[in-house]
């Protein structure tokens, strides 16, 4: 723990639940290593109290805060400025307090892209298939489009939710072609044939459904496909095992989690998160 003094400034995470968040240890370890006079705290915010919590951050002159589920969209009403990418994505996970002016950013999609780049995966001018159409899918899909993916296909159980994302991309990032399809193995097989990356953003494969995968017939995969899952607990989902068995390179969700934090850290402090903290987080319970 870095030592807290009379001049230490607060940075926080607001959400519900927040008890299991890995962000406090990641940021406090970084502050300590770099001798920065900040302290990071998690606050559980009840429904209907988001505006009050944000006012409190302003009153307390917090340097900034993360905002997590379920308030990433609601928070936008209470900010003074929202950066372009967060506006297109339609949600904010990081806020900077610049002398009383609150500026919102979204580092989730950027965190995913950074994790991909760290793995050496080239996605520019490539086709990407994303399964699921929730908030995480939206942040990832928009960021990949902004960073010049050629084509993005969103496959989802509820087609309307997929269409919301492909419409956002086609309207705001017309250079990337976005389409939505219903989640169906025959259709997925067709789309995956000439795709470079497959990303699972659904919760299928998490603890409660650990023996399940979004894909039943692994023949629809091919070995040149890079397969990513945004789940990090367990670190190897059934989908990633299936993919590895047929020779695909894979990535779990730990990188996205760590790099969204590292990008937020840079927004608040202007300094890169120490490599050693990033490494420790990425290696955790490997
Ligand atoms: P987040 O905001 O964290 O991305 P979310 O909003 O709950 O999470 O989104 C989860 C996505 O996973 C949704 O697109 C959901 O499909 P629907 O849009 O049809 O609700 C998808 N999903 C969750 N459980 C699923 C399941 N058992 N089968 C197929 N899709 C599932």
From TrEMBL:
Shikimate binds at residues 21-23, 68, 93, 108, 232, 260. It catalyses: L-quinate + NAD(+) = 3-dehydroquinate + NADH + H(+); shikimate + NADP(+) = 3-dehydroshikimate + NADPH + H(+); shikimate + NAD(+) = 3-dehydroshikimate + NADH + H(+). Residues 122-230 form the Quinate/shikimate 5-dehydrogenase/glutamyl-tRNA reductase domain. Coiled coil: none annotated. Residues 13-95 form the Shikimate dehydrogenase substrate binding N-terminal domain. One of its GO terms (biological process) is amino acid biosynthetic process. The active site is at residue 72. Pathway: Aromatic compound metabolism; 3,4-dihydroxybenzoate biosynthesis; 3-dehydroquinate from D-quinate (NAD(+) route); Metabolic intermediate biosynthesis; chorismate biosynthesis; chorismate from D-erythrose 4-phosphate and phosphoenolpyruvate: step 4/7. PANTHER family: BIFUNCTIONAL 3-DEHYDROQUINATE DEHYDRATASE_SHIKIMATE DEHYDROGENASE, CHLOROPLASTIC (PTHR21089:SF1), SHIKIMATE DEHYDROGENASE (PTHR21089). This is Shikimate dehydrogenase (NADP(+)). The gene is aroE.
